[in-house]
Write a structure and sequence with these properties.
The chain is mainly beta and 319 residues long. The strands form five sheets. Strands 1, 13, 14, 17, 18, 19, 20, 21, 22 and 23 form a ten-stranded antiparallel sheet that branches. Strands 2-3-4-11-6-9-12 form a seven-stranded antiparallel sheet, with no helix packed on it. The protein has a four-stranded antiparallel sheet with strand order 5-10-7-8. It is globular and about 50 Å long. It starts with 6 loop residues before the first strand and ends in a 5-residue tail after the last helix.
Length: 319
């Protein structure tokens, strides 16, 4: 086994509209179809909303996987059909295990909707093994101050440990399968090597700045993702003249069949059909105030059309 992991493919993520109509980059789940056990990574923002422009994802179902929401800037509020609700602020992480299924709403906070502001963050979809797909839903809402941060090389390396371990710091969030989720910031010219278990598959996504990925120093900039080849150590390096921010995400592959359609991820198409039937029959429940959230989304879209944001964003979106 080669010790240093090479980058077996480097891909530029496309942009598309999601949820109520906000724009995301999709490094995983698009050109890179899956990276077992990861199904999708969306990067929303950075975007500066004017008052009334902020758009979220009103009521929608999930079954059979987990969603991991990481807020970099801004704030969002969530509700679900099991009665859970809360506000996620800058630096927070929500690890939601959809399991047997919930109807979920992810909207801008009242402050964001009223006053506007900058919004940026990520949502990762993590597949669940067949034995866990119908477990009870669970939330882990973790404030920024509870997420371990490690530093090295006189502060030139900064790592937020969302899942797994880095530089002696262990994550507080529990995962159902072995997973590493690190937000790594490197000062200009800094080199950092992160050990990754050799039985993990994974990727490195550059979400700000530019630098080099892998021991062969593949040049990468914002919006590009490098899929890791086999090995142990994952090397990354910031460009000489600017910082680089990288999400390093890896995990033990499930190696199970994937049936994925819309908001449901199961192992067979019969299970997908059952998920739709359960949702349509109301078995996944509903959330009070649904009409108001969809109306607020339409109002924000109209506001963006009036200010010109909607049309300017269209130039970057893949239809």
């Amino acid at each position: 086994m080669t010790k240093n992991r090479a980058i077996k493919s480097l891909v530029t993520s496309h942009q598309q509209r999601e949820g109520g109509g906000f724009v995301v980059r999709r490094p995983i789940g698009g050109e890179v179809r899956h990276c077992d056990p990861f199904l999708m990574l969306d990067h929303f923002g950075p975007v500066d909303y004017k008052p009334g422009e902020a758009i979220g994802a009103p009521d929608h179902p999930h079954r059979g996987f987990e969603t991991v929401s990481y807020i970099v800037e801004g704030s969002s509020q969530h509700k679900d059909s099991a009665g859970n609700s809360g506000v996620l602020k800058a630096g927070w992480v929500q690890w939601m295990t959809a399991g047997s299924g919930v109807v979920h709403s992810e909207m801008p906070s009242d402050d964001m909707m009223k006053n506007g502001g900058r919004s940026e963050g990520f949502q990762l979809w993590v597949n669940l093994p067949a034995k866990d797909k119908m477990i009870s839903p669970r939330y882990q809402d973790t404030p920024a101050e509870n997420i371990p941060i490690a530093t090295a090389q006189n502060g030139n390396v900064w790592v937020k440990v969302i899942a797994g371990e880095s530089l002696g710091k262990k994550a507080v969030i529990e995962t159902r399968t072995p997973i590493m989720y690190l937000d790594i910031h490197l000062k200009p010219g800094t080199v950092f090597v992160q050990p990754v278990p050799e039985d993990y598959s994974g990727f490195a996504y550059v979400w700000r700045g530019s630098g080099y990925l892998g021991h062969e120093r593949a040049s990468a900039k914002m919006g590009q993702v490098g899929v890791l080849d086999q090995g142990v150590d994952s090397r990354m390096e910031a460009s000489a003249n600017e910082e680089v921010h990288i999400l390093l995400i890896a995990g033990k592959p499930l190696k199970e069949p994937i049936a994925h359609y819309g908001p449901f991820v199961m192992n067979t198409w019969e299970e997908i059909e059952q998920a739709f039937a359960d949702y349509q029959s109301g078995k996944l429940g509903s959330i009070e105030g649904s009409k108001e959230r969809f109306a607020a989304t339409e109002s924000a879209k109209q506001k963006q059309q009036e200010t010109g944001r909607w049309h300017s964003d269209n130039s970057a979106v893949v239809s």
